[in-house]
Amino acid sequence: MIASIAYVKKTLGELKAKKKYGQNFIIDANTVDKIARIACDPELTTIEIGPGLGALSEMLLKYSRDVDAYEIDRDMYELLKQNITDERFRVFLGDFLDADLSIYKEKVNVCGNLPYYVTTPILFRLFESELDMKKITVMVQKEVGDRLCAEVGSEDYSALSIEVQYLYDVKTEMNVSRNVFYPMPQVDSAVISFTPKRERDRQFEERFFELVKNCFRMRRKTLHNNLKDLYDKETIDRVYSELGWNEKIRAQELSLDDFIKLYNVLY
Ligand code: SAM
């Protein structure tokens, strides 16, 4: 069992966990088992981001057809190759942001205990990729999870929450205490899943996400004030009268459906 403090300390040996790669290893078997059950399908490949010493990889292998893991740190890569010999496990050395994902022609699952310093770029790499994903299941810092899952009206609700929730059913699967990592991080984590919920239309997305970002440009301003810088008075009057909105309304009070309505009236 890789997810234990004894294994992690023994295997790291003289090596130290590298801060610059966001290395915090899971040392609780129950946690990795739960994540893998959420993330995997027995008939599909799971792509793992940042396998480290392989605590999660071991469980992903148990519940998937096979596992392709991408690890940036050569030390981890060498240890993994020695320690996980199952031929259903492939490990690639390199930055996941540069990985060639066009090799995947079939549906896949994606999972990882993400390095905190590069969480958002990795998520956007996935969201913007052409991968046919059944589900993405990732461990992130709890505050990042709160932003991704934020509901309309809450403090964390932002253009990011709307964009992500437009594309995916986003769910907080579980909260994870900082105590199950070695070395112990400063904050708790959460496991978040993303299940695609619609056909992709990149052209629409580009324009829609641009509009959403503009609506949040000055968070303290009313929506009316944010729109005033972008559209003429006639257009704005038409929007407010067609939608029956009050001029005092702010972007953070609008649901995803409201943003879609706004887009449809504007274009
Ligand atoms: N999966 C292991 C676990 O849960 O115990 C390790 C998780 S640790 C939080 C993050 C891992 O991602 C580290 O092994 C780190 O070296 C690796 N990593 C960091 N940046 C990466 C990148 N850009 N691409 C691929 N792996 C990366």
Structure description:
With 267 residues, the chain is of the alpha/beta class. It folds into 2 domains: 5-196, 3-Layer(aba) Sandwich (Rossmann fold), CATH 3.40.50.150; 202-266, rRNA adenine dimethylase, C-terminal domain (Helicase, Ruva Protein, domain 3). It is 40% helix and 19% strand. The chain contains 11 helices and 9 strands. It has helices spanning 5-12, 29-39, 55-63, 74-83, 119-128, 142-149, 159-167, 202-215, 223-228, 233-243, 256-266, and strands spanning 25-26, 45-49, 66-71, 89-93, 108-113, 133-141, 168-176, 181-182, 189-196. It has a 7-stranded mixed beta sheet. Helix 3 (55-63) links the parallel strand 2 (45-49) and strand 3. The longest helix has 14 residues, at 202-215. The mean pLDDT is 95. Residues 21-26, 49-52, 55-56, 70-73, 76, 95-97, 113, 115, 118 line the site of S-adenosylmethionine.
